[in-house]
Design goal:
Blueprint (H helix, E strand, L loop, with lengths): L2 E5 L5 H11 L4 E5 L3 H7 L11 H8 L4 E4 L2 H7 L2 E4 L19 H13 L4 E5 L7 H11 L6 E5 L9 H6 L4 E5 L3 H14 L8 E5 H32 L3 H9 L20 H14 L3 H28 L8 E5 L14 H11 L3 E5 L5 H10 L8 E3 L13 H7 L5 E4 L6 H7 L2 E4 L7
Parallel strand pairs: 1-2, 1-4, 2-3, 4-5, 5-6, 7-8, 9-10, 10-11, 12-13
The protein binds nicotinamide-adenine-dinucleotide.
């Protein structure tokens, strides 16, 4: 029986391993983490992350061929294939601070693998890492190898939070990069056989190590760039009377462009896009390519601009001040169907409004009060005004808001600022609201 161990039981490690376990009943999968509360949660009825369909998948195989444990060393020592899915945040200090990936967690996982291994291992990069990381990992492992053969593979994860299970069941592609040596090819084949249990062969792409590592950064940079491109257009639409939804539809009909990822919004968030673009920028700079670095930096600049443009629009519409005014924020996670608030644009919006002394209430059924407190404190927010936090209640997510009742209870004029272009603006204007939608004329 093949044994898989995954180091890191987070948003990636948990769901990816649960799907491997459910699709490959003959493979034993153990997910390990240094965080006891996280492992306890994976072993409980209240999983540590919210993801549609995840509960059912975990329940189907937990205790059979899927296990969660804090006994990291034991399970690493016993595994044939080790996935490393630890966090790789942006460095906050030292060389490359603010841009480079912090590989501290990766390095300590690699050193631990070298310390405890007694048999040959395939070590799989599941985390998003800078191109050439496999070379560094190889050095760490082979310097301490004790005759053990280590093969490093890059198998980046392309799932999107909110649709992780769907993405893992039906991936557009699985990418595996390995060394072009006989042992390297054998390792690639072994991993391919795991995915071949449910992914059609034509969707499993094999490349060299560096192409696989770079493809993940490139994919996130391209996705984020599309959002910044449409958001840049939304500003021009507002200035000219064009409607960004009409523009998106018109350009998306071009098969070379395609319709996906063309919705204007308050900006992208999440733990990956900004971090991975900064990582790419740093790699370009280190490789003497400042023009390429500047090109990608602009994607983040437009995203920052879009967030501040939104806050400014709220404040300027409400007669240039929100001081003492009650503002309700509906939704705090970085997108729908997730409770993840890492780098959510809502933090910048709240910060902007609180900075102008608004009285802010926040409601998100998937986000806890603690999380919001921590996110805003983490961003060094100065709490000098009351802030009302609604406790999470997942059942409320399905309820339709009674906008007539909301309107009746609001001070007039009553405003709605739609950061995702999701409300029915026409209907709400019929009730009497002043509605701002991103990239649209005020009466559209
Ligand atoms: P996460 O923070 O949710 O999970 C990482 C886990 O690793 C944590 O639980 C942490 O305790 C654990 N960990 C750290 N060091 C460890 C060690 N030495 N031993 C055991 N456990 C250790 O992060 P995530 O969102 O799952 O992301 C993981 C990686 O996957 C990152 O590189 C990220 O860029 C990448 N990625 C994330 C997504 C996403 O949507 N979140 C998608 C694709 C790729």
């Amino acid at each position: 029986m093949v044994k898989i161990c995954c180091i890191g039981a987070g948003y990636v490690g948990g769901p990816t391993m649960a799907v491997i376990a459910v699709k490959c009943p003959a493979i034993e999968v153990v997910v390990v983490d240094i965080s006891k509360p996280r492992i306890d949660a994976w072993n409980s009825d209240k999983l540590p992350i919210y993801e549609p369909g995840l509960d059912e998948v975990v329940k189907a195989c937990r205790g059979k061929n899927l296990f969660f444990s804090t006994d990291v060393e034991k399970h690493v020592a016993e595994a044939d294939i080790i996935f490393v899915s630890v966090n790789t945040p942006t460095k906050t200090r030292g060389l490359g601070a603010g841009k480079a990936a912090d590989l501290t967690y990766w390095e300590s996982a690699a050193r631990m693998i070298a310390d405890v291994s007694k048999s040959d291992k395939i070590v799989v990069e599941k985390s998003t890492v800078p191109v050439k990381t496999a070379e560094a990992i190889e050095k760490i492992l082979t310097h301490n190898s004790k005759g053990i053969n280590y093969q490093i593979l890059s198998n980046p994860e392309f799932l999107a939070e909110g649709t992780a299970i769907e993405d893992l069941f039906k991936p557009d592609r699985v990418l595996i990069g390995g060394r072009e040596t006989p042992e390297g090819r054998k390792a690639v084949q072994a991993l391919k056989e795991v995915y071949a249990h449910w992914v059609p062969e034509e969707n499993i792409i094999t490349t060299n190590l560096w192409s696989a590592e770079l493809s993940k950064l490139a994919a996130n940079a391209f996705l984020a760039q599309r959002i910044s491109s449409v958001n840049a257009m939304s500003a021009l639409c507002e200035a000219t009377g064009a409607n960004v939804s009409e523009v998106s539809y018109a350009i998306g009909k071009d098969s070379r462009i395609g319709p996906k990822f063309l919705n204007a919004s308050v900006g992208f968030g999440g733990s990956c896009f900004q971090k991975d673009i900064l990582n790419l920028v740093y790699i370009c700079e280190c490789n003497g390519l400042p023009e390429v670095a500047n090109y990608w930096k602009q994607v983040i600049k437009i995203n920052d601009y879009q967030k501040s443009r939104f806050v400014n629009r709220v404040v300027s519409s409400m007669f240039n001040t929100v001081s003492g005014k009650k503002v309700a924020i509906l939704g705090f996670a970085f997108k729908k169907d997730t409770g993840d608030t890492r780098e959510t644009p809502a933090i910048d919006v709240c910060k902007g409004l609180l900075g102008d002394k608004a009285h802010v209430s926040i409601y998100d059924p998937e986000v806890t009060e603690d999380q919001i407190q921590r996110d805003l404190a983490m961003n060094k927010f100065d709490w000098d005004h009351p802030m009302h936090l609604q406790p999470a209640s997942p059942s409320a997510i399905k309820q339709e808001l009674d906008y007539q009742k909301i309107f009746d209870n609001m001070q007039k004029p009553a405003f709605i600022f739609d950061g995702r272009n999701v409300v029915d603006a026409e209907k709400l204007r019929g009730i009497g609201f002043i509605v701002y939608s991103i990239g649209k004329p005020l009466d559209a």
